[in-house]
Specification:
The complex is a heterodimer of chains A (254) and B (317). Chain A is of the alpha/beta class. Chain A has helices at residues 43-51, 73-78, 96-105, 112-117, 124-138, 153-166, 183-198, 210-216, 234-239, 241-248, and strands at 5-14, 17-27, 32-36, 58-63, 66-67, 81-83, 171-175, 202-206, 219-224, 227-232. In chain A, the strands form two sheets. Chain A has a six-stranded mixed β-sheet with strand order 6-7-8-3-9-10, sandwiched between helices. Chain A has a four-stranded antiparallel β-sheet with strand order 2-1-4-5, covered by helices on one side. In chain A, helix 7 (183-198) links the parallel strand 7 (171-175) and strand 8 (202-206). In chain A, helix 3 runs parallel beside helix 6 (153-166). Chain B has 317 residues and is mainly α. Chain B has one domain (7-316): Orthogonal Bundle (ABC transporter involved in vitamin B12 uptake, BtuC), CATH 1.10.3470. Chain B has helices at residues 7-17, 20-23, 27-52, 60-78, 82-106, 111-129, 131-134, 156-180, 182-192, 194-199, 204-230, 240-253, 261-275, 282-296, 300-316. The two termini of chain B are 26 Å apart. The chains are: A alpha/beta (254), B mainly alpha (317). The interface between A and B is medium-sized, with 35 and 32 residues.
Chain lengths: 254, 317
C-alpha cells in the first residue's frame, strides 16, 4: 500500500543553519503519526515544508504518491491537506461560523467574478448545516455567531481544528494542538484528535506535550538538531537511549 | 459578514442623496455634490484594496486619471460619444492595474506601495508629456459633457448629479455584494494573515490582484464621470498628492468599514472648500486634524458612528 504522506531525504538550510537534515517519513492512510523533539529540533520547519509554507532545499514530499514539492500552499489544500497553526490564526473580525466557512470554501469552485454575479447565497442553508455540524463536533456550536476574536485561547484552538476539518482533508496537519492548554483541555483535545483519526483521516501532529503524543500517536518520529534520532511506536521511542539522552541529557552530564 | 448593512439601508441612503440637487441653492453646490459622489466611488474602491485587503496602493488617482484621459481624449480628439468612452475608461484603468498588480502583488510586503508609487510618477510624466493627446500641463480642453444635446443648460447639473449618483451607488452596491460573499471572508482572512489564508487554500495573490483590478476599474469609471462633468482634465488632478488624499479619506472614514467612504469622501470634498482661504496652510491644517481624529478614533468616523449608536442603544435600555 502506498503511503499517504512520504518524505524522502528532506533537507532545509537557512543560511548556515541546517534546520532539517535528511528526514524520511512514511505515513500510511489512517495513521495518527507525530513528530516530537526538543526546542529547535526542526519540527516546525518540517511541518512547514509539508504544508508548503517553506520550500525544502532538497528531498521529496509525496502525497499519495505524487510529488507535491512544487505545489504552492493553497494548491496543497485542494489536494486534501489541511493544517492548524501553532499560534492561533483565526480571523477575529469574522464570526466563529464564518471562520469555519473559510475552511469550507477551499473545495468550492469560484472566484471574485462569480461572487460578484451572485449565486453563492443559494447554498447558504446547506453551508450553515455543515458549519454547525463541524462546530458541534468540537463543542463550539453554541458560539457559532459570536465574534471569533472573543473566544478564549482553548476555544480558539478548537475552532482552528473545526476549520481545518471543514475542508474534509485526507491529511490533517496539527501544529502543537495542545500547546498552552491546561491539562483538562489538552485531554479533551487528545480525545478529539483520536476520534478524527478513528474516522479515517490521516493525522500528523507536531507536539511538545509528550504525554499527549505518547497516549494517542501510533508512530512517532523523534528529531533533534534537525535530524531523526529515533522512530517507531510510542513504546519503542520512549525506551530508545538516544531519545532519553536528547530529552533528559546524558548521565555523565549530571 | 459582520459589520455589513442590509442592502435596503444602502438603498435608503442613496434615495436620500437624490434630494441634494433639489435642496441645493445653486449649481455650484450641486456640483460639490457631484464631486462628493465621485470621491465616494474612488474611496470605496481604495477601501476594498487598502481597508479590506490590507494593501497600500499609492496610485489610485492614477487609475482615476487613466479613466478620465481615456474617455476625454477619445471624445475631444476623436469625436466619440461620452457614453462610448465608459468601457474605454474602465478598460485602460484595469489594464494599468493588471500591469502593476500582477508582479507587485505576487510578492509579500511593501512591493505594492513601491510599485504604485513608481507607476504614479511615470503616468504623471506621461499625462504631462503626451501633449498631442492629453494637452500636457495646460490640460485637455474641449471634452464634451454628458447632456450636450438636450439644449437645456439648466438641466446640466442635475443630469451630471444623476450620473455621479448612479456611479457612487453602483460602486457601493458592488462592494456590498462582494464583501457579503465568500470573497469578503477571504479578504478579511488575507488582511489578518496571508499565511493563514494560504493555509486554508486561498490563492492570496489571485484574490489581491482581482480586488486591485476591480478597484482600478471603479476609479476608471470615476474618471469618466469626472472628465465629462468638468469637460476638462489636467495632470495635477491625478497626481501623487491626490492618491495620498484618497488613502487619507479611507483612514478618516475607517479602514475596512463599509460606510467609511461616505464620511471619508465628505471630508475630502469639503476640506478645500472650508480650508481654501488658508491657502498654503490648507494641507498643514488638514494633516493636523487628521492626526487628531485618528488618535482619538483609530477606527475612523464610521467607527465613531457605530460607537455612538451603541451608546444610544445602551442609554435607551
Amino acid at each position: 500500500m502506498t503511503a499517504l504522506l512520504e518524505l524522502r531525504g528532506v533537507c532545509k538550510r537557512f543560511g548556515g543553519v541546517q534546520a532539517v537534515a535528511d528526514i524520511a517519513l512514511s505515513v500510511p492512510p489512517g495513521q495518527l503519526a507525530a513528530v516530537i523533539g526538543p526546542n529547535g529540533a526542526g519540527k516546525t520547519t518540517l511541518f512547514n515544508i509539508i504544508a508548503g509554507a517553506v520550500a525544502p532545499s532538497a528531498g521529496e514530499v509525496r502525497l499519495d504518491g505524487a510529488d507535491i514539492a512544487r505545489v504552492p500552499m493553497h494548491g496543497r489544500v485542494k489536494l486534501g491537506l489541511a493544517r492548524t497553526f501553532q499560534n492561533l490564526r483565526i480571523v477575529p473580525d469574522l464570526s466563529v461560523a464564518e471562520n469555519v466557512l473559510l475552511g469550507l470554501d477551499a473545495h468550492r469552485p469560484g472566484g471574485v467574478l462569480r461572487d460578484l454575479l451572485g449565486g453563492a447565497t443559494r447554498r447558504a442553508a446547506e453551508e450553515r448545516r455543515q458549519v454547525l455540524a463541524l462546530l458541534d463536533r468540537v463543542g463550539l456550536a453554541a458560539r457559532a455567531d459570536d465574534p471569533a476574536g472573543g473566544l478564549a485561547y482553548g476555544e480558539g484552538k478548537l475552532l482552528e481544528l473545526a476549520r481545518a476539518l471543514a475542508s474534509a482533508p485526507r491529511l490533517l496537519l496539527l501544529d502543537e494542538p495542545a500547546a498552552g492548554l491546561p491539562h483538562a483541555e489538552a485531554g479533551r483535545m487528545a480525545s478529539l484528535i483520536r476520534g478524527i483519526a478513528r474516522d479515517g483521516t490521516t493525522v500528523l501532529l507536531v507536539e511538545h506535550n509528550m504525554r499527549l503524543v505518547m497516549s494517542i500517536a501510533q508512530h512517532i518520529l523523534v528529531m533533534s538538531g534537525g535530524r531523526q534520532i529515533a522512530a517507531g511506536t510510542p513504546d519503542q521511542v520512549s525506551r530508545d537511549p538516544a531519545v532519553i539522552e536528547a530529552y533528559l541529557g546524558r548521565d555523565d552530564d549530571a | 459578514m459582520s459589520g455589513l448593512p442590509h442592502p435596503a439601508w444602502l438603498g435608503l441612503v442613496f434615495v436620500a442623496l437624490l434630494a441634494w440637487p433639489f435642496l441645493s441653492p445653486n449649481d455650484y453646490v450641486t456640483l460639490l455634490g457631484v464631486g462628493f459622489l465621485v470621491n465616494v466611488g474612488l474611496v470605496v474602491g481604495l477601501n476594498l484594496v487598502a481597508g479590506y485587503c490590507g494593501q497600500v496602493s499609492l496610485c489610485h488617482a492614477t487609475f482615476f486619471g487613466l479613466g478620465a484621459y481615456a474617455s476625454g481624449v477619445l471624445a475631444a480628439r476623436y469625436g466619440w460619444d461620452p457614453m462610448a468612452g465608459l468601457p474605454a475608461a474602465v478598460a485602460l484603468a484595469s489594464l494599468g492595474a493588471v500591469i502593476i498588480g500582477i508582479p507587485a502583488l505576487r510578492l509579500h510586503g511593501h512591493y505594492l506601495a513601491m510599485a504604485t508609487l513608481g507607476f504614479s510618477a511615470i503616468m504623471t510624466v506621461m499625462f504631462n508629456e503626451l501633449v498631442s493627446l492629453t494637452g500636457g500641463p495646460n490640460g485637455l480642453l474641449g471634452v464634451p459633457g454628458f447632456v450636450r444635446d438636450f439644449g437645456h443648460p439648466v438641466d446640466m447639473p442635475l443630469g451630471q448629479y444623476l450620473v455621479a449618483w448612479c456611479y457612487a451607488g453602483l460602486c457601493m452596491l458592488i462592494a456590498l455584494r462582494l464583501l457579503a460573499s465568500r470573497t469578503g471572508r477571504t479578504m478579511r482572512a488575507i488582511t489578518f494573515s496571508e499565511l493563514a489564508a494560504g493555509g486554508l487554500g486561498v490563492d492570496t495573490a489571485r484574490v489581491k490582484i482581482a480586488i486591485f483590478v476591480l478597484a482600478a476599474a471603479m476609479a476608471g469609471a470615476g474618471g469618466w464621470v469626472y472628465v465629462h462633468v468638468n469637460q476638462f482634465a489636467s495632470p495635477e488632478t491625478f497626481g501623487f498628492l491626490r492618491s495620498v488624499l484618497l488613502l487619507t479619506a479611507v483612514a478618516i472614514g475607517g479602514w475596512g468599514r463599509f460606510w467609511g467612504p461616505l464620511p471619508g469622501a465628505l471630508v475630502l470634498t469639503m476640506t478645500p472648500e472650508v480650508l481654501g482661504r488658508f491657502h498654503d496652510f490648507e494641507m498643514l491644517i488638514f494633516g493636523g486634524a487628521l492626526v487628531l481624529v485618528l488618535l482619538a478614533y483609530p477606527g475612523g468616523l464610521a467607527a465613531l458612528g457605530a460607537a455612538l449608536r451603541g451608546r444610544l442603544r445602551r442609554a435607551r435600555a
